[in-house]
Amino acid sequence: MIFPTTFLHLILLVESFLLFLCVRRLRDTGDFLLREQKLQLKASSTQKTSTDFAIPMIYVVTPTYTRPTQLPDLTRLANTLRLVPRIHWIVAEDRNTTTKPVADLLAASKLRFTHLAAERPHELIGKVIGRGVFNRRAALDWIRTYAEPSGVIYFADDDNSYDVRIFEEIRQTRVVAVFPVGLVLKFGISSPIVRQGTVIGFFDAFLGGRKFAMDMAGFSVSVKHLNSKPLATFPAAVSWLEEGFMRSLEVEKDDLEPKAESCTRVWVWHTRTEKAAEPKLQHLQGFHC
Ligand code: UDP
Ligand code: MN
User: Fold this and answer.
1) Is ligand 1 within 6 A of the CB of residue 93?
2) How is the chain split into domains, by residue range?
3) Distance (Å, rounded) from C-alpha 168 to C-alpha 261?
4) Which ligand is closest to the CA of 157, given by its number?
């Protein structure tokens, strides 16, 4: 069967038109995919900026000393901190040199960290007075030298328990932020008392003439404020660490910034790990296969 040339031309024309439509569709799909990819890239880079650069660094200072529960306590804390963006963990050992088990734990944590050790003056070795003082001071020295001025400092003991929400409260600290701490002494809580957004006092089982009756885990300080108070430090005085440090920061009660929903939430607890036995080598002697 022979088609007339005009008919063949007509079929060719229709086919060319269909081909043209296909090519156009392909081009539009390509453009659409490119646009989507660009949008996604933009979104992920915004996310990266917000986790990596746009939010203040929190310098979490953990004083620690060699005790049987040290490694499990630090492991728990490392696991919590891994959930929080922009953390720099300063682990300060209360002894003359850093120890390998702690160094190994820090390396394995994959966190951004600084490992310090601070020797106590000879006359205070083994004494209650000076516990956790010189290692916290070493962390303050490090912060004054190296910390980003937009950062925030938080003193996180190794054996406490932290809800990750507390870190986002801490991150907003302008001068000194305060919030409740659970499981403190016989009241079971230590908290600032807030009226109309202002701290007017403290609820704490140990007032003892303190102006700032707070637990170490109940406040945070901006690096900027610390840097503006070169004499701010921890005193070597039993039960007076928080009070002495707050006074040295030269702030007043009504300067304090209440956090954790106006101090109505407990997002950190002063838990204490039960004292564990020290494993002794002689206990292995009776072991037989
Ligand atoms: N700490 C320290 N040196 C000491 C005793 C304690 O660095 O000689 C640290 C300890 O590891 C913890 C914090 O100071 O991070 C508070 O100590 P602890 O937990 O023993 O006190 P408590 O919670 O019982 O008041
Ligand atoms: Mn403790």
Assistant:
1) no
2) 54-178+215-259
3) 12
4) 1
0.85 exceeded by the pTM?
no
Q: Scanning the structure block, which residue is given the tokens 């300060």? A: 92
Ligand 1 atom with minimal separation from the 94 CA: 7
Per-run averaged pLDDT (10 residues), the chain, 289 residues = 74 82 74 57 40 86 97 98 98 97 98 97 91 97 98 98 98 98 97 98 96 98 98 96 98 97 98 89 75
d(CA 235, CA 201): 22
61, 65, 155, best to mutate for ligand 1 pocket (most atoms within 8 Å of CB): 65
Does the domain at 54-178+215-259 match CATH 3.30.360.10? Answer given as no
Which residues lie near ion ligand 2 (Cβ < 5 Å)? 157, 159, 272
In 3D space, the residue among 235, 253, 236, 254 whose CA is nearest the CA of residue 245 turns out to be 235
Please name which ligand lies nearest the alpha carbon of 77: 1
